[in-house]
Amino acid sequence: MTMHSRPADRAPLIAVAHGSRDPRAAATVEELVHAVRLREPGLEVRTAYLDHAPPTLASALCGLDEAVVLPLLLTAAYHSRVDIPAALREASARRPRLQVAYGDTLGPHPLLVGALERRLAEAGVTPGDPGTAVVLVSAGSSDRRANLVIARMAREWARARPWWSVTEAFASAAAPTPEQEVARLRRAGAPRVVVAPYLLAPGHFADKVARDTREAGADVVAGVLGAAPEIVSVVLERYGQAVRRPAAVATA
C-alpha cells in the first residue's frame, strides 16, 4: 500500500524515536519535541516510540485523519525502511481514511555537523582545531548503506575544516569500534583525540561509547545531539518537505 493523499499544510507532526529502557532517552526526545513546538507554536507535535516506551505510533495517530510521520533517526536503515512503514500500513489497514505523509530521516544533513560542532565546543573543543583528531561515532547498522553515509559524512567534515583528521567509528554492527579508532589515532600520533557522538539521546550506546573511548585514551567525549537548535531546524525542514512532497510508504 502507498499513501497517496497530501495532508494539509498544518497536519500534525508525529515524531517517531527509537525508544529506550533508559528514561533519559525519552526525556531528551520530549525536550527536542518541546523545542519544535516553541519554534512552531501553531503546529501540533506528538511523539511516538518504536520500542521500550509509550506511546506507539498507532496510539500517537489515534484521533487523527491526517499526519506527517517523521523518523527521529539519524540514518536511513532498517527502522526507517521497514519498521515504521510496516506500522503505517497496519494503521492504515485499520483506518482506510487516514492520510499520512512519511518524511525522511534527520540525516544526512549539513546542519547536523553544526550540531556536532556545537556539542564539541560545549566540551571545550575549538571547531576545526588542526591539532585535534575527531572520531565521529554512529550507533552502527547492519545496513552497509547507512554506515557508508557516516563514512562520507566524516570525509566531508574533514574537508570542510582543518582538523588533524575526522574518521568514523560504530558503536555496534560495524567496524571499527570507537575505542579501536581512538587507540589507532593515538598510535598514529594524533596530538589530541576527541569523540563526537552522532547519537540523538543518552542511553546504553552513549554511556558505553563514553566509557570505552575514555579508557582507550580519548581526551574529550562530547554530549549527544539532543535538542540542539540545528536538530530542531532539521525536524521542521523534514516536516515541510514531507508536506510538499509526500513520500510513498514502502511495501517491503
Salient structural properties:
252 residues, Rossmann fold, four-stranded parallel sheet, 8 strands, 17% strand, elongated, disordered C terminus
Describe this structure in words.
This protein is of the alpha/beta class. The chain has 2 domains: 13-106 and 228-244, Rossmann fold (3-Layer(aba) Sandwich), CATH 3.40.50; 110-221, Rossmann fold, CATH 3.40.50.1400. 42% of the residues lie in helices and 17% in strands. The chain contains 8 helices and 8 strands. It has helices spanning 23-39, 57-60, 78-94, 110-122, 144-160, 178-187, 204-216, 229-244; strands at 13-17, 45-49, 66-71, 99-102, 132-138, 165-170, 192-198, 220-221. The strands form 2 sheets. It has a 4-stranded parallel beta sheet with strand order 2-1-3-4, with helices on both faces. Strands 6-5-7-8 form a 4-stranded parallel beta sheet, sandwiched between helices. Helix 7 links the parallel strand 7 (192-198) and strand 8. The chain is elongated and about 60 Å long. Keywords: Lyase, Metal-binding.
